[in-house]
Design goal:
With 549 residues, this protein is an alpha/beta fold. Helices cover 39% and strands 14% of the residues. It is built from 22 helices and 20 strands. The longest helix is centred in the first third of the chain and has 24 residues.
Length: 549
C-alpha cells in the first residue's frame, strides 16, 4: 500500500476504500494481531459488518501513520481506531526516531532503547532532558495524527499495566522504561486522549504462551524482532485479549458509527470561532445544532449547486414541502450564518456573517427535517457526509450562471463597497452591460469555472437528484417542467398530486437571497471576446458535462 511495508489483510475492496466504507486501525504489533489467526481486526469486521483496513506495523510509533501515502486512508475512513503506541521510536533532534539511531558517543547505529539506556547509565541529568524531548515529540505527533483524521476517531490503550504504573521520574531513578507502551506514562496519556472523540483502556494479562508445531505437536520456536529464537511469548497480548478488546471497544464503536457524538472537525470549528463566538442551539439530548426547530419531513436535505443555478429557489421549494431551513450557507472551509437576518443584511453583511467552520463540521449540526445549501466539491469524504441526505444538485447553462452572478455581485458591491480590492471591483463601472460582463469574466470567470468543475462528478452519483433550472422554471416548456416537478416530488418521497405540484410551481419567481428581480441570461451580454474567455476557462466542456449542448 505504501510500497515499503506489508500490512495484514484482507484489504477492503477498492470500492469500499474509495467510498470510505471501512474502519481503519492504526497501531503497532498489538493491533496487528501477532500470533493470532482470529485477531481483533477480524472480530471487529464481523461484529459491525464493515471491512477493516489494518495499518498497524510492529514497532511503529505515531509518526509512522503520517506518511503521505497513508494519510488519504485516514482521511476517508468511516471510523479510525488509533493505538497508544510506544514512545521509544519517536526520538528527537539529537537521536532521530526509528528502530536504530546514532549513538553520539561512538557514532554507531544502535537500537534506540540501548542508546537511551547508555545515556541513563552515564548521565542521568542528560537522560531526563532527552526523555522530556522524546515525550514532547510524541505528544506533537499525536496532535498531528489526530488532526489528520477528519472523521470519528477513538484512542485505544492496550497494555499489561495501567497508565499510572510508570512515570518519567521512575525511569530517571531506576532506568525502568516500563512495559508497553514504553516511555508513556499517565501525564502523556492525559495530554493525548482529549484529542480523540473517545478513549478506551484495556489492561491484559501477560501469560506465557508456548507454541506447538501443528505437524508434530512438539514445541515450535518463533523468531523474535531481534532475530533470536524463542519458545514462549511473554510480550504480545494473548488470544484472550483479542476477545477482551472487542468487548471493550464495541459499545464505543457503535456510538461513533451512529454519529451521536461530536467529531473532531466540530470541536475544531468551535475553537476556530473563539475570537468571534458562533452561536449554537442545544437540543433536548444536549447536541449542538443550528436550530432546534425541525420540519415535518424525516430526512435531512441539502441543496448543492452551481452558483446562480437556483440554489435558494430549490431551498424555498424544500421549505414549502415541509423541511426547515437552517439559514446556513455551507462552503468547504467556512459557513455564512443568515439566521435571523433580513434580505438586505444578508446581502450587505455577508463578510461579517462568515465563520471558519468547514463543511465536514457544519453538516453535522443539521438535524432530521432540516436542510442547508452550498456549493460543495465532490469527494469521497463529502459524498459519505451526505449519504443519508436528500441531495438536490441545481444545474444551469454555465454561461447563464456567470451572467446572473455578475448582476448579483454588482448588487453586493454596491451595498458593501469594501467587499473586494479596487482592482477586483473596477469592472462594475463599465459603460455597458457587455463591458461589465467582459470585466467580470476577466476577474472571476476562471475562478468560478474551477469551482464548477469540482461539482461535475456529483451528476453521476446514485441518490443525487440533478435539477435543471431551465426545466423547473418552465423555460424548456410546460411538458418538461411538469416532468421535472413530478420526478422531483417522487425523489423527495412526496406523491406528485396536483396540489403538491402547485406548491412547487408557486415558488417560481419568489424573491430569495440571490434573486435579481428577473431571469438573467448571457445571450444579451455575449460577444466574440466573451466567447474567447469562456472557451479559455473550459466553459463549453462544463456545459456539455451538465447536459447542455
Amino acid at each position: 500500500m505504501d510500497g515499503e511495508n506489508l500490512f495484514r489483510g484482507p484489504c477492503p475492496s477498492a470500492e469500499d476504500l474509495k467510498n470510505g466504507r471501512y474502519i481503519c486501525l492504526v497501531g503497532a504489533a498489538q493491533l496487528l494481531g501477532r500470533f493470532h489467526s482470529d485477531s481483533f481486526q477480524h472480530k471487529l469486521a464481523r461484529k459491525f459488518n464493515l471491512p477493516v483496513l489494518n495499518l498497524s506495523v510492529p514497532a511503529a510509533g505515531p509518526e509512522f501513520a503520517l506518511s503521505p501515502k497513508l494519510r488519504p486512508y485516514l482521511e476517508n475512513a468511516q471510523l479510525t481506531i488509533v493505538q497508544v503506541m510506544s514512545g521509544r521510536s519517536i526520538g528527537c533532534d539529537e537521536y532521530p526516531g526509528g528502530w536504530k539511531t546514532t549513538d553520539l558517543t561512538t557514532g554507531e547505529l544502535r537500537p534506540r532503547e540501548a542508546v537511551l539506556r547508555s545515556i541513563w547509565e552515564t548521565d542521568v541529568e542528560k537522560f531526563g532532558q532527552v526523555l522530556r524531548r522524546w515525550n514532547d515529540n510524541y505528544i506533537r505527533s499525536y496532535h498531528a495524527l489526530a488532526s489528520a483524521i477528519p472523521g470519528p476517531k477513538m484512542l485505544l490503550r492496550v497494555s499489561p499495566r495501567g497508565p499510572g504504573e510508570w512515570s518519567a521520574e521512575l525511569a530517571t531513578q531506576t532506568g525502568n522504561f516500563g512495559t508497553f507502551p514504553q516511555l508513556v506514562g499517565e501525564d502523556t496519556y492525559a495530554q493525548i486522549s482529549p484529542l480523540f472523540d473517545q478513549s478506551v483502556e484495556v489492561v491484559h494479562d501477560l501469560l506465557g504462551t508456548r507454541f506447538l508445531s501443528r505437524f508434530t505437536g512438539l514445541p515450535c520456536p518463533f523468531v523474535e524482532p531481534t532475530g533470536a529464537l524463542s519458545l514462549s511469548n511473554r510480550y504480545y497480548p494473548p488470544q484472550s485479549t483479542q476477545d477482551q478488546l472487542l468487548q471493550a471497544v464495541a459499545p464505543v464503536v457503535e456510538t461513533l458509527l451512529s454519529q451521536e457524538c461530536l467529531s473532531q472537525p466540530v470541536r475544531t470549528a468551535i475553537l476556530n470561532t473563539a475570537d468571534r463566538p458562533f452561536v449554537f442551539e442545544m437540543d433536548e439530548k444536549g447536541h449542538l445544532c443550528f436550530t432546534t426547530l425541525s420540519g415535518k419531513r424525516p430526512e435531512k436535505a441539502f441543496v448543492n449547486s452551481l452558483p446562480k443555478a437556483g440554489t435558494y429557489f430549490l431551498g424555498e421549494i424544500l421549505s414549502e414541502l415541509g423541511w426547515r431551513n437552517s439559514d446556513i450557507h455551507m462552503s468547504p472551509f467556512s459557513l455564512t450564518d443568515y439566521r435571523g437576518r433580513s434580505l438586505d443584511e444578508k446581502l450587505s453583511k455577508a463578510r461579517q456573517l462568515s465563520y471558519p467552520i468547514g463543511f465536514d463540521a457544519s453538516v453535522q449540526f443539521l438535524k432530521p427535517g432540516q436542510f442547508s445549501v452550498g456549493h460543495i466539491a465532490f469527494s469521497g469524504r463529502n459524498r459519505k457526509l451526505l449519504n443519508n441526505f436528500k441531495v438536490l444538485l441545481a444545474v444551469r447553462r454555465w454561461r447563464d450562471c456567470l451572467a446572473s452572478f455578475m448582476y448579483f455581485e454588482a448588487k453586493r458591491i454596491a451595498l458593501d463597497p469594501k467587499r473586494f480590492a479596487a482592482e477586483k471591483s473596477a469592472w462594475v463601472s463599465g459603460e455597458t452591460p457587455q463591458e461589465k460582463f467582459i470585466g467580470y469574466l476577466e476577474v472571476f470567470g476562471e475562478q468560478q469555472t474551477r469551482l464548477a468543475k469540482t461539482l461535475v462528478p456529483w451528476v453521476d452519483q446514485d441518490g443525487v437528484f440533478p435539477v435543471k433550472f431551465e426545466e423547473i422554471v418552465g423555460e424548456f416548456g410546460k411538458d418538461a417542467q411538469d416532468k421535472c416537478v413530478t420526478l422531483l416530488l417522487e425523489y423527495l418521497g412526496i406523491e406528485p398530486t396536483d396540489d403538491a405540484k402547485k406548491v412547487v410551481l408557486d415558488c417560481v419567481d419568489t424573491p430569495t437571497l440571490t434573486f435579481s428581480g428577473g431571469r438573467s441570461g448571457a445571450d444579451d451580454l455575449w460577444s466574440p471576446e466573451a466567447q474567447k474567455l469562456f472557451q479559455s476557462f473550459g466553459g463549453p466542456s462544463i456545459e456539455k458535462r451538465f447536459g447542455y449542448v
